[in-house]
């Protein structure tokens, strides 16, 4: 393993220091427990939107702290959900009368740790609610699994919930919107090469030279199925079919198409895949009304991409278009 | 003779040593069917327990276990943090304010731990989780209490042996809880990392007696 | 090699189609020869700022086309400078009375092809000038080399020249500012793992498990020296020393610090390196007045980073802060 | 007997075949001391020449070479595109409007090509570039003209052999021009890809006679 680090056990803290130095106008960082807080938090009268999870998926979540998106992000160790006291510290730094919404990705660890944090916040008399996002169609949503994972849809959810909170919506409304987004967003991911976790030092899984992990998670958990490498046209078709047919998305729908790099797939390939996806959706009569293309929810240096579709309505479009100013996402400001 | 707070602190120290020794093994087990952090997570938690206990050992076995619980909750994260945290917390609560922990108390604490893990994580026997090490451990501990009465050492030894066996039995299981469940059938053929760490911890506690 | 492509020979074109689909509000794309043109070009009365080079360094240059930056980008084949007729097409689509500035990275191929294009433009009676950026301190600037390479400084140059053109500066002024930037910007890069060019199929160079290529270029050309892998603290120190002592940058200077990922180095490592660089500069009495952190000039999926320092004055700061709206860089809009 | 436009078109066709055959070799040479695209670039250019000539072969050797030149300039890119483009352009110009190219004309065209490459690229002998294949090729062609007079085949054969030798000699050189120069001393021990492609092209032209 070669990485630009000093020591696997201090990677997260040292990286957050760099984030704080680079974006002092947007965020402040607390160490131990690690929390990234919007520079002007608490914003009085505003619902706080908070998310978190294992590190290694940057810019998720810390890169999305700032005006119009998250009030705080709680970064755990690499690929490890953060502890309840860290979440509690985030709540304390950001949450007032208007309450807070915790955005939790559906992994056993995230759910359990945020659950405990929610109980601690309730004990402090704060109105803190949680929503659990589970948009990954790769996993069967049955009693035989821990349920679907939260993946690419998380980015869109954080933007939309953050915009709702920023325009002054109540916690009830922000929560309802969040549940609406969760209900109509779906994703699928693939991996071409595995990431290497700093404290592990070897790739998270071994893929043959002609193999693709179809339905990969964002923690280097092996996916659901291994397929033979295939041309982009076939791969994107396979991915989009899985996503479109799941909700299902239908002729006449307006959607946001989010083409995401898992980290190690460069823009030239990402845009190539995006172009194919746009064409295939047009063929299905689905209108791509908004799009996001880039590495926004990653898995360290994993090579691969994910595709996320969110069904839009006018209000969601307004919230998506609303100004946002964070380290990784910025417009209208 | 029962265990004092000092004994339990010593046993946790021993458990920390065993976890550190098996850190890579647990990482590798988790790498195969999870995300490769279990060894790192457990090691971080138990290292923290040791350094907390170095400052001061609280009064009474229950207080020591409670301190271990809160340390695990605030240092481990992931699925294992809250689950092991709950296990230690329930065990601590079951002890109340006793000065020494005897054999029956060990069995009671283990059952409380199991119930706590199941309350939090909803896993049942056969789901390929730490529960599959804990269920036989509790049964063996309770049986040992029935046979040997109050001997802490024997109760712990029985629990540890059963946990080890229970962990081994997870190999053939298909995961239905936790990250390994995403793999479906592909999860079979691998030892569950959490079941393995449960067996390691119980083994270390038994040895330390 | 595993890549999300259909055919190595159509990668660039197909990728540009995705770019056009994703950012139709910002750019339009012409194929054969491939040119990416600002959507509202030609902007009347404005100096056109044009750059280009081999593909595989995205978002450079095509991701920087739009308001306040480039009027056109000319993407060649992967790692191959574009041909004169492609540059000529870019000039034709963007350039009027006010003339154009061509920003050329100092590589033999780029210089020769843009030179020919410039001659063609002059023959058409257009006022087209070129500046050649050569900010890479890894290469000795002597008669024994092709001269220093153009690397990270290119991004900053494109932003600043683009902002000057956008505010209505004449070609004389834009050219002078560009030469000023070139005079006071310096960079260095390192590689931890090589990229793979689609039509080659194997990594561009072979690095041992404990080796780092110090002074790497952005085309996977081997660097100047191979060093043993070392902790981030030592590596960033070594890199910054090389950059700071070259110009040299001195106590009291105000600078822009640009910490760039070569593609495969994830944000967690990049911000870690950035944090170290900020601290080391503070120790030298150099004030980091502006910063840019991210993958902005890459080498496909190469793992590594580069550090760029630009000495700032008030005018350069104003130009840096000016609104920009492109696929990859956006603020103030 | 001299070469007609058709002969030259045929020879370029043959050169395209040789370049295609050696595409990977040229890529590998360039991968070692450059950026690995030389084989791809040259192959793209010569493939384009062939398909342009399939449409229509222009009148006269000069016109054919000029078409090859503009095709290379607009299809190859990189350093090789403008350099080879200039070489072919200058060679074409040196021929003027002759109907057939004889031995002396070949030598003149080669010298014009060399001068063009040097005017554009500023490389001199020993810089480890295509110039190191061209210089001996021109010298050998001119010597052959002195000995054998007007025989195109002999002139081209002499040039090709000298170019091959010249290319080989680049192995020991330290690059001072082009991308390989960034490597400094580390560029020694490798064959220059552009010198190799020059030798391959001249070899193919000579064979095609
Ligand atoms: N719902 C659950 N109930 C009981 N144990 C569980 C549950 N989910 C996961 N586990 C245990 O947690 C272990 C994984 O822990 P760890 O790797 O530290 O957390 P994470 O899965 O969040 O990375 C599994 O091997 C399993 O034994
Ligand atoms: N200044 C120069 N003069 C003559 N030949 C040169 C010069 N620079 C480079 N070359 C030739 O070009 C070859 C490289 O061509 P190519 O790989 O196609 O372009 P690039 O270096 O732009 O990738 C070198 O091997 C060398 O022979
Ligand atoms: Mg984990
Ligand atoms: Mg794990
Ligand atoms: Mg090249
Ligand atoms: Mg090359």
Question: What do you see in this structure?
Answer:
- The complex is a heterotetramer, with two copies of chain A (about 325 residues) and two copies of chain B (about 210 residues).
- With about 325 residues, chain A is of the alpha/beta class.
- Helix content of chain A is about 30%, strand content about 25%.
- A six-stranded mixed beta sheet of chain A has the order 1-2-4-3-5-6, sandwiched between helices. In chain A, strands 9-8-7-12-10-11 form a six-stranded mixed beta sheet. Chain A has a two-stranded antiparallel ribbon with strand order 13-14.
- The longest helix of chain A has 17 residues.
- Chain B is mainly α and about 210 residues long.
- Chain B has one domain: Serine Threonine Protein Phosphatase 5, Tetratricopeptide repeat (Alpha Horseshoe).
- In chain B, helix 1 packs parallel to helix 4, helix 2 runs antiparallel to helix 9 and helix 6 packs parallel to helix 8.
- The radius of gyration of chain B is 16 Å and the shape is globular.
- Chains in contact: A-B, A-C, C-D.
- The structure holds adenosine-5'-diphosphate (2 copies) and magnesium ion (MG) (4 copies).
- One adenosine-5'-diphosphate sits at the interface of chains B and A.
- One magnesium ion (MG) sits at the interface of chains C and D.
